[in-house]
Write a structure and sequence with these properties.
The chain is mainly α and 225 residues long. The protein folds into 2 domains: 132 residues; 79 residues, no CATH class. The protein contains 6 helices and 3 strands. A 3-stranded antiparallel sheet has the order 1-2-3. The longest helix is centred in the middle third of the chain and has 36 residues. About 5% of the residues have low confidence.
């Protein structure tokens, strides 16, 4: 329990650092900082490498959250790398005379256009990352469904645990209440539902599907032939 709490705390810090990285990079590109936020970037890199090697220690819900955060961080990194390159390429040598001033003016205008395009790309990437991590209720963006096949629920505690975590995570991200959802009641539901379908449909396997349709979380039980 203590290990789980520690991992959750570190994931929370990872998420905070990603947000802070974006804020400080925006300040740097806007002229409010003299240097890029390399210290935060170093912490994020170390965290990513550490948990890439410790993936087996994460529970399903933690692994799902870690993957979303690393995808967001990767998008930001790519955007910041391109903006740094554009910032460096925007540095030009000074010339003298009317012709030189005209050249510098044209280059400054192009640099401003590039910066504006980069800012728009950053905003679009941020919106896409937020939408991918937690789709708003009522939108048509539906994350990939989680599927699990069950035949002997009384012997498949680990599989039912993953199904429970997927269902819980989906409801939390959709903003649905989870206060009455417990592992014990969920186990009882899966056991009863599986046995009922096996008896009624004369089947061996039952596939459970967790999916989000139009912002609402659905748990389906399907007969496998």
């Amino acid at each position: 329990m203590a290990v789980t709490s520690s991992i959750d705390d570190e994931l929370n810090q990872f998420e905070r650092d990603i947000r802070q990285l974006k804020i400080e990079y925006d300040q740097y590109f806007g002229g409010g900082r003299k240097r890029p936020p390399t210290e935060i970037e170093w912490r994020l890199e170390m965290f990513s490498k550490r948990y890439a090697e410790r993936g087996g220690e994460l529970k399903f819900g933690q692994r799902f959250r870690y993957n979303n955060l690393t995808q967001t961080y990767a998008k930001y990194k790519d955007i910041f790398r391109k903006r740094l390159q554009q910032k460096e390429e925007g540095k030009v040598q000074r010339h003298f005379g009317a012709a030189a001033k005209k050249i510098e003016t044209e280059r400054a205008q192009k640099a401003a256009e590039v910066q504006a395009a980069a800012a728009a790309a950053a905003a679009a990437a941020e919106a896409a990352a937020i939408a991918a991590a937690a789709p708003a209720a009522g939108t048509s963006t539906n994350p990939a469904a989680f599927r699990m096949v069950c035949s002997k629920p009384e012997q498949e505690s680990e599989k039912i645990g993953e199904l429970y975590e997927a269902f819980l995570q989906a409801k939390q991200k959709a903003g649905e209440p989870t206060g009455k959802l417990t592992r014990s009641s969920f186990n009882d539901f899966v056991l009863k539902k599986t046995k009922d379908l096996q008896t009624q449909k004369k089947c061996h396997d039952v596939e459970y599907v967790v999916e989000v349709l139009e912002g609402q979380v659905k748990l389906k039980a399907l007969v496998k032939s």
